[in-house]
Amino acid sequence: MQAGPSRRAMLALMGWFLPAAALAGYPDRPVKLVVALAPGGPADTAARVFAPYLAEGLGQSVVIENRSGASSVIGTEAVVRAAPDGYTLLFGSSSSFAVNPAVMRHLRFDVRTELTLVGLVSYTPHVLVIRADLPAETLADLIALAKARPGKLTYASSGPGGAIHLASELLKREAGIELAHIPYRGGGAAVLGLLTGDVDVFINDVSTTIENIRANKLKALAMAWPRRSPLLPEVPTFAELGFPGMQSSSWFGLAAPAATPADVIDRLDAAMRGAFASAAYRAGLEKLGLEQFALDRAQTAAFIQAEIDKWAAVAKSADIRVD
């Protein structure tokens, strides 16, 4: 059940009437950064490289708390319901901000009205990979093979209704092919399925796939991003190959409960921008296969709205709904 108007009004009043002295001293104790996805995954990795630089900008410790479950719903809701004082923040993902609203029928909250986005932090583009012994060397080869064997080739996902599932359905729509869905319990299991030959095709984060690509255990056919990845400069983009609509990534943003005072949001924004300016931070991202966003607030709003619209359309056309 969604929070009622009276509760939202109460949270708004809490934000308005926090003492000015408290705002002036923010933060005067450690800040909790809730990561809504599992430890060791791309969101957790991105948060752990970001947190020390956010802490440096705030002049206070930033403690990461992993609260995974229900495709990031549990951790996201924990922040939605937290006191709007800037001490409980969300390090959310594309699942939190765009995919879940597109596929979940009964979300108990609305991230668009019950969270305040400080800004987008980083992303890892998606890459299309296939098992090493599949008889295809290019995207054109894969499409031809799929059309010759409609519904016979399989694709892996990290779970039904997730970002990877929707990205794969987008590929099917854009390329006009049929692939059978094999859901796994997490991205690691999906990669293993590809390595053992139990599944044929996978769209996944560059950051968690690159080592197997470099070891020639998987074949990378196309990047689902407007430009080539510096980590895989030899891999063409889908746009270069004639499919400009095939764009997907796992992306991460910093958010606070909706009634958090503007002064606190501005303080967090300044600390985040300070992290972005750090050469050491950018090098840390690159080492992990992550890339930094460089969007202003208007561009950020436009990007997120485009993501919501895109995944809602894919979910509708593929009849993907999660109860």
Largest sheet: 10 strands, mixed
| Rg | 20 Å
Flag low-confidence runs: 1-22
Order of helices and strands: HHEHEHEHHEHEHEHEHEEHHEH
Q: In CATH, what is the class of the largest domain?
A: Alpha Beta
Structural class: alpha/beta
Q: Helicity level, as a percent range?
A: 40-55%
Give a count of the beta strands, DSSP E runs of length 2 or more.
10
Shape: globular
- Strand portion, in percent? 15-25%
- Total count of domains: 2
Q: How many separate helices?
A: 13
CATH topology of the largest domain: D-Maltodextrin-Binding Protein, domain 2
Characterize the structure shown.
The protein has two domains: 188 residues, 3-Layer(aba) Sandwich (D-Maltodextrin-Binding Protein, domain 2); 98 residues, Periplasmic binding protein-like II (D-Maltodextrin-Binding Protein, domain 2). Strands 1, 2, 3, 4, 5, 6, 7, 8, 9 and 10 form a ten-stranded mixed sheet that branches. Helix 3 packs across helix 11 and helix 5 runs parallel beside helix 13. By secondary structure, it is α/β, with parallel strands linked by helices.
